Amino acid sequence: MVAPAVEGIDLFKIAGRSISGWIPSLKMDTAVRQPFCSQLEERLLLWLEYHPQVKSYARGDIGPQFATTYRLPIPKHAPFAIGYTFESKPHEYLPDVVGTLTSGKPFIAEAGMEDDKRGDRNQARAEAARRLARFQRGVFWIGTERTLTKRRHYNLVFLHARRKTFPAFADIAAARPRGLALGRNGRGRRGGEPS
Questions:
Q1: What is the distance between the alpha carbons of residues 154 and 30, in angstroms, rounded to a whole number?
Q2: How far is residue 143's CA from residue 48's CA, in Å, rounded to a whole number?
């Protein structure tokens, strides 16, 4: 018996009246728009954007059709379906975000209201994601309104609005005045030393 292919979701159709939009991400080699369909998803994406251990990330719940429609790169293994059993029936779970840590290990991340995440079905989903992450020697993160605070989010929005790429040392050295050596005067001595 062959399992049916899992279709990705159209985030903006399910968003309804909630906040939805895009976060520009610079975690990849080029700037990529990351879609979100709730305020907690937006907070999670910005948190991942500035997390020092996150190398790259992408939506785990979108499929090729959504990615093509909005001109997004298609994530590897998209949609990222995780099988789980609830009430003795098999189900598929599509996590909000999947990615890679700087160590090369994978991670799975989910955002949602804490009360919702305590429900039986969401507990079964979380346990399946936790098992899969452990099996792949990765991690599973859940972001709630308590862990993804508004205060942190506003700080990250402030940083993101002013974000510029940091020039490499060679670029800085090439832009300095000719006679000025970095940290020393032009003769290779510290500024206050006699000749």
A1: 24
A2: 11
Torsion angle in degrees (nearest 10) through CA of 89, 3, 41, 102: 120
> H/E/C letters for each residue in the chain?
CCCCCCCCCCHHHHHCCCCCEEEEECCCCCCEEEEECCHHHHHHHHHHHHCCCEEEEEECCCCHHHHHHCCCCCCCCCCCCEEEEECCEEEEECCCEEEEECCCCEEEEEECCHHHHCCHHHHHHHHHHHHHHHHCCCEEEEECCCCCCHHHHHHHHHHHHCCCCCCCHHHHHHHCCCCCECCECCCCCCCCCCC
pLDDT, one tens digit per residue, over 12-61 is 555 555 557 888 888 876 788 888 888 999 999 999 999 989 998 988 88
Round to whole Å and give the CA distance between 137 and 106.
7
CB atoms within 10 A of CB 14: 12
139 and 101 Cβ atoms separated by less than 8 Å: yes
Sequence-ordered list of residues with C-beta below 8 angstroms from that of 104, at least 6 positions apart, any chain: 55
Decide: pTM greater than 0.90.
no
C-alpha radius of gyration, the chain, whole number:
22
Angle at alpha carbon of residue 29, lines to 24 and 32, rounded to 5°: 25
